[in-house]
Amino acid sequence: MIEECTSTNTSLQYDLKNPIKSYFLPKRYKEISGISFFSDKKSLAFVQDEAVQIYKFDLCSSEITEYSKLESGDLEDIEIIGTAAYLLKAGDHPSLYKSCHFSSKKPHYERYNLNLHKSYDPEGLCSDVDQSRLLIACKGSPNKNDHVREVFTFNLQSGCMDDLPLLSIDCRDFLNSSKDRFNPSGIAMHPQTSDLYVISTKSVKMMVCYGLDGNFKGAWKFDEDQFIQPEGIAFTNSGDLVISSEGKKGNKARISVISYI
User: Fold this and answer.
1) pLDDT for 129-171, tens place per residue?
2) Domain ranges, ordered by start, for the chain
3) Is residue 105 scored above 90 in pLDDT?
4) What is the rounded distance in angstroms from the CA atom of residue 254 to the CA atom of residue 2?
5) pLDDT at 179 over 50
6) Per-residue exposure over 11-49, b if at least 16 CB sit within 10 Å of its own CB, e if not
7) φ, ψ for residue 171 (rounded to 5)?
8) Which of 105, 139, 246, 257 could bridge 183 with an S-S bond, Cβ 3.0-4.6 Å?
9) What spatial distance separates the first Cα and last Cα of the chain, rounded to whole Å?
C-alpha cells in the first residue's frame, strides 16, 4: 500500500492519469531510458539501453535525429547543460561521459569514473545548476534487503563524486509492505520549487518527492497502463512534467506530458 503525502501537506500538482500530450516512438526506440531538454526547450534528448549514443526528439514535428554512436553499452540517463551533454552509464564500472560536440560526425567524449560499487546501479541523472553539480540516483544498494536508496552528487568543477550522499530515500517513508522496494530509475529537479522528483519502475511504479534538505514530501503511484515502464523524467521551464516509458509487451515507447496545475 502506498500512502500519499504521509509526512506533509504537500499535494501533487499533476494529474498523472490525464497527460495533455502523448507521443509514441517507433519500435526501434523502445529501449528509451532517460530524457533531458535541450536548451531551446522545444526538443528532448534521449538515450537507450543499447549504446553510448544521443537522440533528439522534436516535440513539434516528432522527428527523431540520431547522433553518432561512440561505443556499445547500456546508457541509463542523460542531462543537457548548455551545449554539453552528460551521459550516465552503469554496469561493472559506473561512469559519466561528457561531450560538448556530440552533434559532430566524430564527437569527443570525456569519461569520468564515479567510484561507485556496481551494486549501487546508478540510473537517474539531473542537474543542480545553481550548485554546479549533477545528482545521481541509484537503483540498488550494496546491502542486501536495504530499504534505502542513495542520491549522490558529482561536482562539475572538480569532476569528482562527493563521498557522502546528498539524499537517502527510505521506502519506509511511503511503503507499508516490507517486501516492496523503491528503486529509482530517473530523477529531476522542479524548476519552480527545486524539489527533487524521483521515479521508480522496478518493484513499484511510482514517483516520490523530496526537498533538497532531505525531507520527504509525497509519494504517488503510477497507472501502469499509462506508464508501463517509467524510466525518464524531466520538467519544462513552466513546470510541466515529462515522463518517458520503455516499450514492452508489444507496446511502443511513450513520452507523456503532464500539465503543472
Assistant:
1) 999 999 999 999 999 889 999 999 999 999 999 999 999 999 9
2) 21-258
3) no
4) 25
5) yes
6) ebebebeebeeebebeeebbbbbbbbbbeeeebbbbbbb
7) -65, -15
8) 139
9) 26
Contact in structure between 240 and 38 (CB atoms under 8 Å):
no
C-alpha cell at 10: 504537500
CA 145/CA 168 separation, integer angstroms: 15
Spatial CB neighbours of 225, under 8 Å, sequence gap ≥ 6: none
> DSSP secondary structure string, 15-83?
-TTS-SEEEE--GGGTTEEEEEE-TTSSEEEEEESSBS--EEEETTT--EEEPPP--BS-EEEEEEETT
Residue with cell 510541466: 240
**All cell numbers assigned to 158:** 572538480
Dump pLDDT digits (tens) for 190-248.
Answer: 999 999 999 999 989 999 999 999 999 999 999 988 999 999 999 999 999 999 999 98
Task: Record the cell numbers describing residue 56, joined without a space.
Answer: 533528439
β-pairing verdict for 216-221 and 167-170: unpaired
Per CATH, which fold does 21-258 belong to?
Neuraminidase (2.120.10)
